[in-house]
Each structure stands twice: as structure tokens, then as C-alpha cells.
Design goal:
Elements (H helix, E strand, L loop, with lengths): L4 E2 L5 E5 L12 E7 L7 E9 L12 E6 L2 E7 L12 E5 L5 E6 L9 E9 L1
Antiparallel strand pairs: 1-2, 2-9, 3-8, 4-7, 4-9, 5-6, 5-8
Length: 125
């Protein structure tokens, strides 16, 4: 799991999970990014999750993500259609100063071993 890294100019920060995957156990959530404190300034955050090729293509087999801001679930997406590996979804949100940001992967039993990851960049405003 990744945390926040400030860029040298001090006006942006980033985080990336790397490529993650589950195992064959019971479906679970997988923490991908956890930033305990975004800093002393408000920020605009861009989040880009990515998913590898699914093992199963059933209607209820898609992976998804949950985004939490200060322990409140503010975004949840779990598609029901096949998305090729090149599929890119970008989510933008506002984070007040000193916010806690968490990004969590949602598993399904059919696609526990499917790769997934997320990149994040925050711009102080």
C-alpha cells in the first residue's frame, strides 16, 4: 500500500499502488492507497484506477474501487461489464486541508487474482 509523496516544487503530491492482485481466498477488499494527511492546503485530487484482464466475464464479476475521504465513503464503482486493460477512468475530487484519503479495491470471488492498481496526483489550490 502506498502513501503520499510530495513533489519537489511543493505544490503537488502523488501516490501509486503499483500492480496488486488478490488470492484465491474469500473475496475481500484490498487497500491500495492510504494518505493519512493531505497537508495544510486544500487540494484537487485526480485518481486513475486500472484493471488487468478479468478471469471471468460474468455480470457480477467486475472489480471496483471505493474512495474514502476522512473515513466517509464518497465514491464507489464496481462495473458490471467487461473492460479491456486499456480502460482508463479518471476521478476528480476536492480534498480539504488535512484530509485522510483511502482508496480500496473491491474484489469478487471470480476475479480475486485479477491485477489492479491506482495512481493519484494532488494539486494544492
Amino acid at each position: 500500500m502506498s502513501s503520499q509523496i510530495l513533489l519537489s516544487g511543493g505544490d503537488k503530491y502523488y501516490s501509486y499502488s503499483g500492480v496488486l492482485f488478490g488470492d484465491v481466498s474469500v473475496p475481500a477488499t484490498i487497500p491500495m492507497i492510504a494518505i493519512d494527511n493531505t497537508g495544510l492546503r486544500d487540494s484537487l485530487i485526480e485518481i486513475q484506477p486500472y484493471f488487468g484482464r478479468p478471469v471471468a466475464l460474468g455480470i457480477n464479476d467486475a472489480l471496483g474501487i471505493v474512495i474514502k475521504l476522512d473515513d466517509v465513503e464518497i465514491y464507489k464503482s464496481q462495473g458490471s461489464d467487461y473492460r479491456p486493460p486499456s480502460y482508463n477512468e479518471q476521478i476528480r475530487l476536492f480534498a480539504p486541508r488535512n484530509s485522510k484519503v483511502e482508496i480500496i479495491s473491491l474484489n469478487t470471488s471470480a476475479n480475486n487474482t485479477q491485477t489492479r492498481g491506482v495512481n493519484l496526483i494532488g494539486y494544492y489550490v
